[in-house]
Structures are given as C-alpha cells and as structure tokens.
Amino acid sequence: MIGTLLKQLIPQQLKRPVKRAVLNSWDSARYGYSKGNLDSGNKHHVIFVCKGNICRSAFAEYYLRSVMAEGAHKIESCGLDVDQGLFSPQEAVSVAKEFKVDLELHQSKGVASCDIHNADLILPMEFRQYQRLKAMYPGKKSKIRLLRDFAPWPDRLLCNISDPYGSDEDEFRRCFKRLQRSLDGLKNHLAISENM
Questions:
Q1: Rounded to an integer, what distance in angstroms lies between the CA atom of residue 186 and that of residue 167?
Q2: What distance in Å separates the CA atoms of residue 71 and residue 105, rounded to the nearest whole number?
Q3: Could you tell me the maximum CA-CA distance found in the chain, to the nearest angstrom?
Q4: Whole-number mean pLDDT of the chain?
Q5: C-beta atoms surrounding 86 within 10 Å
Q6: Which of the four CATH numbers 3.30.300.20, 1.10.10.10, 3.40.50.2300, 2.40.50.140 does domain 37-191 have?
Q7: How many CB atoms are closer than 10 A to CB 158?
Q8: Which of 77, 118, 138, 167 could pair with 61 in a Cys bridge, judged by C-beta atoms 3.0 to 4.6 Å apart?
Q9: How far apart are CA 115 and CA 99, in angstroms?
C-alpha cells in the first residue's frame, strides 16, 4: 500500500534515480558487512568487470592504462553478460574523449576471455557483480573488491557505480567522473602497494 502510494507520488523522471539511490544504499550496507580483508600482495594484474564490457569496465581499463607507467601492470576488462564483439555506444565514445580515453575500437569480451585465475585484483562495478564473481571464483575472494572502494571520501560511502547504458551523455559524464575518481584512487593504491 505505502509502496504503491510512493510510486504514484514520485514523478516519472525521478523514479530511476530514486530507485538507484535506494538500491545503492542497501547494497552499500550489505557490501560493508560482507567484504573481508583485501589481499595485501602486489597487484600487477588488474581486471575490471561490469555487465556488458562496453561502458564502465572498458572506460576503466583504458583510463587506468593511460595514467599508469607503460608495461608496469597488466590491465584487462570484461563483462559478466556479454555478446562478444559489441562496440561501445556512441554516447560512451563521445564522453570518454572528454577524459582523453578512446573507446572507438573497443569490443566487448566475456570473463572467459580474461585471465581471471592469475589476476591480483578483480574490480566489479556493482554489489551484484561482486557477489557473482565471489560465487564463480571462490578462491579469489580476497582479490575481489568494488572499484568504488578506491574513491575518495565521501564518494566511497556508496558502493555501486551504476550502468549508464541507454542514458544520455550527461549520465555517461556523471558515471565516468565517478569512475575517474575511483581510478585515480586506485592508481595511488597501486603505487603504494608497489613500494611496500
């Protein structure tokens, strides 16, 4: 009854953001409770994971490569629900250029195409992906973290980086800014772990 009433009161254009905010808050609480300690070893091999490997994980791969010393790390990306060989949507390609990231020739690939078993750090974008990866690769639990863990405070209070697929360029821009903040934090983390 209350849920139906709330649905009627919320304007249509706000329903998706409100739903995402509620889900993100709930997922963040569950993630904070469920995550264990991150493996403290060197992190030479990093894999980013999202749903389709055409927006978020692709951007993360190419952005991190652009800010890291060449050859210092193996950086890959893949998707959990992928049709092989799909290109990034035009909105992603256009907005990524604002961050000096070229997604023009990127083609999606699934987790079977990545070297997950030798990865030092596996970084999904959402809590549901984190859960799936832990179930798929139980021996890798201490190497799986949500990417937003590396964002500065208070950005890391929420754990999910929502999928902008099907949205306008403004939504892609917001998503890629969140990714950039998390990736810059990850870059610093990788530099510190190399010097330990």
A1: 26
A2: 21
A3: 57
A4: 90
A5: 15
A6: 3.40.50.2300
A7: 19
A8: 77
A9: 27
